[in-house]
Write a structure and sequence with these properties.
By secondary structure, this protein is mainly β. The protein has one domain. The chain contains 1 helix and 4 strands; from the N terminus they run βββαβ. Strands 3-1-2-4 form a 4-stranded mixed sheet. It is globular and about 35 Å long. 17% of the residues are buried. It binds zinc ion.
Length: 70
């Protein structure tokens, strides 16, 4: 297994979610950790995925309940 780490530069926690920016819809999608590394995705740990802040006017769409799975 190759461990995936949070993409925040100052964070070295294990990634549990993948965040994808959908520019066309001004939407940030937070889903389960993707099997493949998405070209426009960012892997995030639980802390950063739940404490996510998005640009003004953007919506966040969550596909996972963080914290209970795994
Ligand atoms: Zn993190």
């Amino acid at each position: 297994m190759n461990e995936r780490l949070c993409s925040k530069t100052t964070c070295h926690d294990e990634a549990v979610a993948t965040l994808t920016y959908v520019y066309a819809d001004s939407m940030v999608v937070v889903g389960p950790l993707s099997a493949d590394v998405e070209p426009h995705g960012y892997d995030l740990c639980a802390r950063h995925a739940s404490g996510l802040s998005v640009p003004q006017g953007w919506e966040v769409l969550r596909h996972v309940a963080l914290g209970n799975e795994h």
